[in-house]
Inverse folding.
């Protein structure tokens, strides 16, 4: 299939590559994985060299000796691969399984060794022949030790694959998943070692050592690509100055890749499968303090960088219980002062709300009976709470938003204070000119809110009051006033108030109209869905009919 010179050169190139790989690995920063992989590359170089001697042997005793060293190298490669995978994948299986495999391979190697002393349990018979390519081929009839040895090697590779697949399923980090997939792809071809040897696809050329060489190269690419040698060292250099007690190292996607002994002894979750969730919840908390057991802790994070490349985070967790106990007396005094300040704030807020209600009652008393804003405010609060409970507008409808909305609602018609009584209380329909004057109450309302409430500390309250005063007559299809905006560009607060305002106007008697029956008012509201009113708010409003009727009756 190949010329003899080509096969010999191919084998020599493999030995040279294995030596170069060992040198490259030795230049990496010290770590357990580097040591394992370096010995692995040495074993691969030895296996390739032994097979080269087998190819060049002229008598069967020379070939048998070369085969013996090949088997020693292969056994070492498998053991080192199992060790590499168990360390890199943080193996969860009992350690005795791994050591039982090592002992089994060692015993098998010892039995094979007897072949050099005339007690060959590995082969019933053996000889050498010349291949078509011109190199020596070791021909044998396998004995019991051979099958024992083959089974042990296959079990070792299967253990690697199973460990890696378990780690792949266990991790939530996409980076780690890619690295584990790389390990699977590196180990899987090794299963072809014995089948290829039996089938003899390459006219006597044994590709077993080449398969192991490819696996070692894959592992080196893995370590270079995912920087597993460097990360622990870089993390150490970054956090040495800030270590207090527990240290947890995360990769760039937030998955836990290392916890020191103090952290593992202190926080039980770091020893199990939910360590990523534990740390994620810790970092998502609003403060950097938390309680665990009977102790108080504080955490801080340091970025881990390799040059300018962000590699992950190092969390330093400190027990601050002693500080807490020393500060309790001071905290108690601070709480007392804080409560006094809160009480003063509540009194100011109550006074502010009373002023707002007084202004709203003044407006209502000019032509709307004095109860319009109260009913509207009650409906608005009910509608907003229901939307929140049902999960609508969840990014906006917070408790604080609804609280501000309830307090600001009485101000939505404040602009009517500038509308003359002759127009505000006119019986019958407005002329075009009168309606234009009436429409000015929206923009005037916004102006009055800005000029009278601009000194309030709660700027969000002022902004909401401005929105509802200015935009509560906008329509969902854009045909409203004063700006003609449409859809979600209308502030949510104004969309909620719009439907409550129109409904109460319909069921209320005015100088220019009679009251509409409640049943008809609901139908008219529903008819305005998608044109006048927000479709979602309309549906929820209609679904609250019985509760709204109770509010009106009360």
């Amino acid at each position: 299939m190949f010329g003899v010179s080509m096969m010999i050169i191919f084998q020599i190139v493999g030995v040279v590559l294995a030596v170069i790989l060992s040198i490259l690995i030795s230049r990496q920063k010290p770590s357990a994985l580097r040591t394992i992989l370096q010995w692995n590359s040495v074993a691969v170089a030895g296996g390739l060299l032994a097979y080269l001697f087998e190819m060049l042997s002229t008598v069967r005793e020379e070939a048998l000796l070369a085969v013996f060293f090949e088997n020693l190298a292969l056994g070492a490669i498998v053991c080192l691969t199992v060790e590499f995978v168990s360390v890199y994948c943080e193996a969860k299986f009992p350690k005795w399984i791994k050591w039982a495999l090592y002992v089994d391979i060692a015993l098998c190697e010892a039995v094979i060794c007897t072949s050099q002393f005339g007690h060959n349990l590995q082969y019933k018979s053996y000889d050498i022949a010349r291949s078509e390519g011109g190199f020596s081929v070791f021909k044998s009839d396998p004995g019991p030790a051979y099958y024992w040895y083959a089974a042990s090697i296959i079990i070792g590779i299967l253990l690697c694959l199973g460990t890696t697949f378990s780690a792949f399923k266990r991790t939530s980090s996409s980076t780690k998943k890619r690295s584990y997939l790389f390990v699977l792809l590196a180990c899987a071809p090794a299963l072809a070692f014995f089948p290829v040897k039996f089938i003899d696809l390459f006219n006597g050329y044994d590709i077993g050592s080449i398969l192991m060489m490819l696996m070692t190269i894959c592992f080196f690419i893995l370590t270079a690509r995912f920087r597993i040698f460097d990360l622990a060292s870089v993390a150490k250099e970054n956090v040495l100055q800030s270590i207090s007690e527990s240290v947890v190292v995360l990769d760039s996607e937030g998955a836990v890749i290392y916890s020191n002994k103090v952290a593992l002894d202190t926080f039980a979750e770091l020893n199990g499968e939910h360590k990523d969730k534990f740390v994620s919840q810790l970092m998502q908390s609003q403060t950097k303090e938390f309680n665990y057991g009977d102790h108080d802790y504080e955490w801080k994070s340091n970025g881990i960088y390799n040059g300018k490349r962000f590699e992950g985070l190092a969390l330093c967790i400190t027990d601050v219980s002693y500080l807490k106990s020393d500060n309790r007396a001071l905290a108690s005094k601070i709480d007392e002062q804080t409560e006094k300040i809160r009480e003063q704030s509540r009194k100011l807020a109550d006074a502010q709300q009373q002023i707002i209600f007084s202004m709203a009652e003044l407006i209502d008393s000019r032509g709307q009976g004095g109860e319009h804003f109260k009913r509207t405010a009650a409906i608005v609060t009910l509608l907003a709470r229901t939307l929140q409970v049902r999960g609508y507008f969840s990014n906006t409808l917070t408790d604080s938003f609804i609280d501000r909305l309830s307090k600001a609602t009485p101000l939505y018609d404040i602009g009517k204070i500038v509308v003359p009584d002759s127009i505000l209380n006119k019986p019958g329909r407005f002329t075009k000119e009168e309606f234009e004057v009436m429409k000015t109450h929206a923009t005037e309302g916004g102006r009055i809110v800005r000029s009278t409430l601009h000194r309030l500390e709660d700027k969000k309250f002022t902004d909401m009051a401005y929105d509802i005063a200015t935009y509560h007559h906008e329509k969902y299809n854009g045909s409203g006033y004063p700006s003609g905006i449409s859809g979600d560009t209308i502030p949510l607060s104004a969309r909620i108030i719009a439907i409550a305002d129109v409904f109460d106007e319909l069921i209320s008697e005015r100088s220019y109209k009679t009251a509409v029956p409640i049943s008809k008012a609901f139908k008219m509201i529903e008819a305005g869905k998608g044109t006048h009113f927000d479709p979602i708010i309309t549906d929820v409003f209609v679904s609250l009919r019985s509760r709204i009727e109770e509010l009106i009756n009360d």
Notes: Strands lie at 123-130, 136-142, 246-251, 256-259, 289-292, 295-306, 309-319. The chain has a mean pLDDT of 78. Residues 321-365 form the longest helix (45 residues).
